[in-house]
Amino acid sequence: MAKPKSLCLFSFSLILLISSCAAVYPVVDDLRVARSSFPSLQAKKLIRELNLFPKEDVNVVDEGRISFPEGSKLVEKRFKFPDVEGLGGVSVEDLGHHAGYYKLPNSHDARMFYFFFESRNSKKDPVVIWLTGGPGCSSELALFYENGPFTIADNMSLVWNEFGWDKASNLLYVDQPIGTGFSYSSDRRDIRHNEDEVSNDLYDFLQAFFAEHPEFANNDFYITGESYAGHYIPAFAARVHRGNKAKDGILINLKGFAIGNGLTDPAVQYKAYPDYALDMGLIKESDYKLINKIVPICEFAIKLCGTDGTISCTASYFVCNAIFSGILARAGDINYYDIRKKCVGSLCYDFSNMETFLNKKSVRDALGVGNIDFVSCSPTVYQAMLVDWMRNLEVGIPALLEDGIKLLIYAGEYDLICNWLGNSRWVHAMEWSGQKEFVASPEVPFVVDGSEAGVLKTHGPLGFLKVHDAGHMVPMDQPKAALEMLKRWMNGSLAEGGSSEKLFAEM
Ligand SMILES: *[C@@H]1O[C@H](CO)[C@@H](O)[C@H](O)[C@H]1NC(C)=O
Ligand SMILES: *[C@@H]1O[C@H](CO)[C@@H](O)[C@H](O)[C@H]1NC(C)=O
């Protein structure tokens, strides 16, 4: 096998390169050489493994395509997807499904696309926003494969999802950062590079959304998402909280934020890769020792990136990802989103039905997206966010916890790329007033339908849940448990673990 060898060389030469440089800046310079090619390959590989083939690299178009009525910043329509099984005589009004575009104020010409599904249960249910990661992948991935109202059958009809999160919430999916999904701009300068830009856009959108839907503005509000959204979510939650404190615009009733298999504190999480890989039998002890040599260099590189670096952050991305690619080179053709699975060909998953569906004329007409292409995952957006990748987003979280805003970190146990171990470690290491109690609190089973669906640890506003029999995409692998988790977390009963026996014993 030639591949592992060359990758081994790659990581090894990085070690030599870095350890032989006394000063740091020459290292950065050397790494800049590789900058142009590698990340785009990485992004394209990611996208291909999902069996997605977006026609465009990014949604940057010649001119504004969606027309907005004079003076309005948001256009929205109620829609009904064609070909929904078992919809019967339900009208567009009955469904409460909306799709819209929002003109971003702090942009040259950016339009953000969103879906809004009113709760199938009650309009009084919390409003929940979902953000998919990538960076640069459309939230429609989650809509159709994880927790949306429908799933796509192979014959392109939609089938109701019994465990859609719209069964317990008024559910929003946003395509962001700009250039992703159906969101677009006619100006390249609107491509985003950091969490300030991302969180301001999301905050502006929320303000416009609640102005459009004042009847939902007093509902509880929760931010959720996955993977690279481990970066977006803490930044967005902090932005909302700051806006509320400054009494900017509409008060947003932020109650909590939840991150599923996220990347939040890279220094801790990259260090956990070799440990997780060894524990799960993906690598041998000798490989572990070799790969672990990159860890201190990675930690050092991340320190240089800090919380506001730029080129040093891109450099640390390369250094640290040698850990990850070193593991993959030795682990064979595993699916790094779910190590129980093999990547068949270059495909780890097949999400191609989503692209086919969203490019159907009848669907596009229903959504009112005009002639905007659907960019399932954007390599350009991915690359533009590389300077943000190694930033530590844990730093803003304690202030939110102290103000009683809930945080749930959950992780499917078989995901490698944002594995539970790294997440558990940063959650435990986080300094806040309840840290000691959180660390000391017992693990309790998370019971769904009488069987253990995960292991849970909570104290005050903080919860950590390791989900059994799931990979990176928990609501896809364990839809019922994921919906239960959401319901109990939102209504404050998650800490009870769902085990009546346990409750009894404590009383
Ligand atoms: C399409 O597939 C779904 C799910 O397998 C099935 O329920 C439905 O009857 C099929 N529809 C048509 C038109 O074949
Ligand atoms: C919270 O939600 C769960 C799941 O729907 C339910 O079983 C439980 O009774 C609810 N608890 C409270 C306190 O409302």
Automatic annotation (TrEMBL):
It is found in: Secreted. Keywords: Carboxypeptidase, Disulfide bond, Glycoprotein, Hydrolase, Protease, Secreted, Signal. Pfam families: Peptidase_S10. PROSITE patterns: CARBOXYPEPT_SER_HIS, CARBOXYPEPT_SER_SER, PROKAR_LIPOPROTEIN. Residues 1-23 form the signal peptide. It is an enzyme of class 3 (hydrolase). Belongs to the peptidase S10 family. This is Carboxypeptidase. The lineage of its organism: Eukaryota, Viridiplantae, Streptophyta, Embryophyta, Tracheophyta.
